[in-house]
Amino acid sequence: MKVQLVKLAHARSGDKADWVDFGLFAWNEAGYRLIAREVTAERVQAHFAPWLPGTVQCWALPNILALKLVLQGALQGGGARNLRMDNLGKAMAAALLRMEIEVSAAEFAEACAAPRVGWWPEAP
Amino acid sequence: MHANVRIGAGLGFYGDAWEPVAASIERGGVHYIASDHLAELTLAILQKDRQRDAALGYARDVVPMLMRLWPLMQARGVKFICNAGGLNPAGAAAALRAAFAAKGLKARIAVVTGDEVLPRLAALTPPHMFNAQPYESVRERMVFANAYLGARPIVSALQQGADIVITGRVADAALFLAPLVHEFGWKLEDAATQPELDRLAQGLAVGHLLECSGQGSGGNFGSQGAWKAIPDLAHIGYPIAEVGEDGSALITKAPGTGGRINFDTVRQQLLYEVHDPTRYISPDVVLDMSALKLEDLGEDRVRMTGARGHPRPAQLKLVGGFREGYKAEVTWGFSWPDAWDKAQAAVAMVKAQLADRRMAHDELFVEYPGLNSAHGPLAPLPAPEALAELNEVWVRLVVRTQDKTVADGFGRLFPWMALSGPAYTCGFHGLNNSSELLGIWPALVGREAVEAAVRVELLSP
Fold it and tell me: Are residues B339 and B263 in the same domain?
């Protein structure tokens, strides 16, 4: 089944000159195994390509259940010359969370059922 | 010397709120506040100020901020470190001293200068560090260039007894690393053994977690749904780090404040604006996060250990800004019916006028706030039937041009179309907002070319 990353992970984006970087964080180990397997530099590059055809690099950080991604050529040359309303790409992490990955129903159920690692006393 | 040093986050950018800092001072038991006023683009804003008035060029919020916070800090022996000096640290200090004198406040203020490298770039000609473009291509258009200094001059200022340290461009995290080096007597330039490098790396990681204020304590927590479970962002507490002599750190915040410190909020900030996480480069140490451990202790407490350090780089990073033409933008709204089609017709009218009047431009950028301005074509537009029935459509048109008169005249293309264009215009926004665009020039320069000019001056109270 196809699952949007937003169901398995949270993310923040930032900018340096013309590059936008993303931290992508699974909620637990089971979710991390899925994003580490499915979210590759090539696939993220293909995801953004209809909008921003720049090169993507990816690093895995299993110690914090996270992936680090960097998209080059993301800001029309940089925030101070970017004509977009979101000139710094602050909302671009959400564009990454739109990406779909292929997982089995059992894998998705396991990742959703596993508790979050963080302290969330008010979590619904 | 404190057994553990507690550092509170100050501002995360020029324009941030300082009431959360008051909470950290009054209830957070902090020894230092370190405040980051400079994002990558802030120097571009300060440059425009400095062009208008040579006494400006610093982050002006530091004056009202310290008028509010310094009495609280002074009463508790808290020291304050900031980079609000921007392009004019001496000007920031002068403004602060004048404001303090008017209210009878006293402090020992130190000023760090020497990060400005523009006059030396013509000789150094550093290429763009991301795309290798040669310096000559922007030389005539460069308006500022500042190197990221490390912690040493701040440590010197603290050693001289400064209560308030004002710097220009320094590595953001150096504002936080410096008090740790000062308090614990950590080796800095001569750190050589793995434990010496690792504790510097811990200090760098602490600074990185705190330099964006509320982004380290549950603000801007990018997620679906989970952000709603973060309590009381209206009264967010900025992060506080309690650091031991070995560099191990506890990240927390003042009691009774909103926000959340947990594994998720802390790691979202940990990777923010990091590229290769095994080589996060600062002027003082290179941080490897690959064995870093975040232990969620609950109750807004996260323990951080395991940062690994590598020796500092031979070169320093600088960021320059160069003039790159002008832009002007107008946002124009249309109501139902046919709102989408009318917006398309409006764009065509603007294009026709630009052509008729021979207004030279590089680009007319068009986006639709509320539909696709955040994610471009990755945000699918509604199906044609739904598009035709939209309640309203706003179109944002932005012209990019090398000709200032074209940018200044762009807004005048619009008002007449309220009567002579498509119907049910529900507003224009931004008819008079042309502005200059700046390209950003990140580059590397030899450390010695910069550091020889760095000065620390302690002003008499």
Answer: no
